[in-house]
Amino acid sequence: MNLKRIFGALLTALGIGGLIYTAVVFSDTSGDTRDVKTLIIYGVLGIVFFVSGISLVRTTKDES
């Protein structure tokens, strides 16, 4: 059991959650400035968490 892989999976799950939340906010938006800021913040955080989690899982080698 590798701690880096678990942390990478957790980051990936958080990134997916952030991207799903961004999609939900986008579907309910009315175009206000606050909605656009929320979309940008959660979208960027979701992408960063998702990409870092995927790269951490991919680069960690299985050593038993």
Can you describe this structure?
There is one protein chain. This protein is mainly α and 64 residues long. The protein is 81% helix and 0% strand. The protein starts with a helix and ends in a 5-residue tail after the last helix. The model has no long low-confidence stretch (mean pLDDT 89).
Sheet-strand content, in percent, reads: under 5%
* Secondary-structure element pattern, one letter each: HH
Tell me, what's the shape?
Answer: rod-shaped
Q: Total number of β-strand segments? A: 0
Mean pLDDT: 89
Find the structural class using helix and strand composition.
Answer: mainly alpha
Determine Rg (CA atoms, Å). Answer: 15 Å
Major beta sheet summary: none
Helix content: over 70%
User: What distance separates the N and C termini?
Assistant: 8 Å
Query: What's the total helix number?
Result: 2
Low-confidence stretches: none
Chain-wise SSE layout:
Elements (H helix, E strand, L loop, with lengths): L2 H25 L5 H27 L5
Tell me briefly what this model is.
With 64 residues, the chain is mainly alpha-helical. It is 81% helix and 0% strand. It has helices spanning 3-27, 33-59.
